[in-house]
Amino acid sequence: MIKADLINKISKKRRVSRKEAKQIVEVFLNALKETIEHGEEIELRGFGCFRIREQGPRPGRNPKTGEIVPIPARKVVYFKPSKNLKINK
Length: 89
Hints:
Elements: H1 3-14, H2 18-37, E1 42-44, E2 48-55, E3 58-61, E4 68-71, E5 74-81
Antiparallel strand pairs: 1-2, 2-5, 3-4
Helix pairs in contact: 1-2
């Protein structure tokens, strides 16, 4: 599913215009982004948690030359799904 699919689904389920559904999705995504940028954790009960993790420095390799290049430490967003979020096969 892409963002446009989500907008269409909200538009049909809530019986609102695509423009209003797009605004809803944009506000939600911007709120998530701002919260993560401030270093806060996001917990959506029944869905999962978005957290920030420190990824330590590690060696990498330049694919053209094969030379080993150091990759510095950085922060990455990590998603941990809820136990209630089960995928039925």
